[in-house]
């Protein structure tokens, strides 16, 4: 479910909950402490998920929409980020937030989205107005911890357990650990796989095979110096239990390794056949985390191969952004010529059994889509 659908469903409930809060209007200049308090509470929610402050819903009037388009105190993502920047959070770690405007039937509402994170609990080491230093705030059902108090000890313990990965599933834990490649060590090789294990939790391992798994070509291979395909299998283990497998590819003659990107597309007709196909990653998902994990910038061949690979794919901030972008493409593909000026194509060597014009088309369309994504983000900047 995307953010738009979820927010509409939440509004229909006509009550506040443990990971969302309603506000009829934006916080005024005199309520900066309230804004900070609410962001901290929602970021420390006990549901282990994204949380929302939904602005433009009037609880006192049967949760009717109150258009925020002309609200003089309205803020965008950058303004919220700037507001949090100088607050003295412990460890300098601040919640990740963004503002998502949503057009509904009766006007526009804004949603401050607090992204789920393992960096909990968020709290200050220096007092800010009425926000006490070292107090940990969290929502319980529809009630936030008062500013002058700290959350109950068992809720605080939960937030610390979340930070240390104790409440997570093995797959969630290894995803968290993979975000810190320096904590992974090389395991002895058996000449069949390249394996690493976590230095503190060696029961978690990740490996990929060395034997080629097929010889199929993809359009993004042609942007490398060495275009030969070397497909691998990535395996993630907890003890001896196989948690997940992904396809990987060794690019440019082995100079760079990455999981293969996912595939999606856009249809212009009523049928579900894709008229445009694209490859992509979504940030904070397991494939993207592993994509980051295996990249070791060397300023030379690996960096070049990595950069050439990313020139051929889309990287989205979220699933919601991907879906919104697809709608944008459907509406604006008729103007694709505006995004196709001076597109450079690599050399596509003839490969037996393949229609090379199709590879060229995929590569060309991807360059248009990358430019469209940049324009989409400029136009719909949060």
Q: What does this molecule look like?
A:
The protein is of the alpha+beta class. Strand 5 (97-104) and strand 6 (107-114) form a beta hairpin. The chain has helices at residues 3-13, 32-43, 77-85, 153-163, 170-178, 286-293, 301-310, 319-332, 356-379; strands spanning 20-23, 51-55, 57-58, 64-65, 97-104, 107-114, 139-140, 143-144, 184-186, 193-198, 204-209, 231-238, 241-251, 256-259, 262-266, 276-282, 314-316. It folds into two domains: 3-163, Methyltransferase, Cobalt-precorrin-4 Transmethylase, Domain 2; 172-379, no CATH class. One of its GO terms (molecular function) is ATP binding.
Which features does this protein show?
382 residues; 28% helix; 23% strand; Schlafen_AlbA_2_dom; nucleotide-binding
| Basic shape | globular
Distance between the termini: 20 Å
What's the number of helices? 9
Q: Could you tell me the strand content as a percent range?
A: 15-25%
Radius of gyration: 24 Å
Order of helices and strands: HEHEEEHEEEEHHEEEEEEEEHHEHH
**Pairing-aware structural class of the strands and helices?**
alpha+beta
Detail the poorly predicted runs: none
Helical content band: 25-40%
| Global mean pLDDT | 94
What order do the strands of the largest sheet run in, or round the barrel if closed? 9-10-11-12-13-14
Largest sheet, in brief, is:
6 strands, antiparallel
List the domain count as a whole number: 2
Count every beta strand, where a strand is a DSSP E run of 2 or more residues.
Answer: 17
């Amino acid at each position: 479910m995307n953010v738009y659908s979820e927010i509409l469903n939440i509004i229909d409930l006509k009550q506040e909950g443990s990971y969302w809060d309603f506000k009829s209007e934006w916080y005024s200049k005199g309520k900066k402490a309230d804004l900070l308090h609410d962001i901290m509470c929602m970021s420390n929610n006990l549901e282990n998920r994204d949380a929302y402050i939904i602005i433009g819903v009037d609880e006192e009037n049967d949760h009717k929409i109150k258009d925020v388009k002309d609200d003089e105190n309205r803020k965008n993502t950058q303004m919220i980020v700037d507001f949090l920047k100088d607050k003295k959070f412990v460890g300098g770690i601040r919640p990740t937030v963004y503002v998502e405007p949503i057009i509904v039937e009766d006007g526009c509402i804004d949603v401050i989205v607090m992204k789920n994170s393992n960096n909990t609990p968020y709290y200050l080491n220096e007092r800010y107005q009425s926000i006490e230093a070292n107090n940990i705030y969290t929502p319980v059902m529809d009630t936030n911890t008062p500013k002058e108090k700290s959350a109950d000890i068992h809720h605080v313990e939960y937030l610390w357990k979340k930070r240390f990965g104790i409440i997570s599933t093995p797959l969630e834990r290894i995803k968290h650990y993979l975000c810190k490649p320096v904590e992974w060590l090389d395991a002895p090789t058996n000449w069949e796989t390249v394996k690493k294990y976590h230095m503190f939790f060696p029961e978690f391992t990740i490996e990929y095979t060395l034997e080629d798994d097929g010889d199929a070509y993809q359009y993004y291979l042609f942007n490398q110096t060495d275009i030969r395909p070397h497909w691998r299998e990535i395996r993630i283990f907890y003890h001896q239990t196989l948690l997940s497998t992904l396809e990987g590819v060794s690019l440019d003659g082995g100079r760079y390794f990455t999981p293969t990107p996912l595939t999606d597309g856009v249809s212009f007709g009523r049928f579900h056949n894709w008229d445009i196909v694209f490859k992509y990653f979504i940030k904070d998902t397991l494939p993207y985390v592993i994509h980051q994990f295996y990249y070791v910038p060397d300023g030379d061949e690996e960096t070049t191969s990595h950069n050439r690979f990313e020139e051929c794919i889309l990287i989205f901030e979220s699933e919601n952004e991907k879906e919104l972008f697809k709608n944008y493409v459907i509406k604006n593909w008729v103007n694709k010529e505006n995004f196709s000026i001076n597109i450079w194509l690599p050399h596509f060597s003839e490969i037996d059994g393949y229609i090379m014009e199709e590879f060229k088309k995929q590569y060309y369309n991807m360059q248009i889509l990358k430019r469209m994504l940049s324009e989409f983000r400029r136009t719909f900047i949060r």
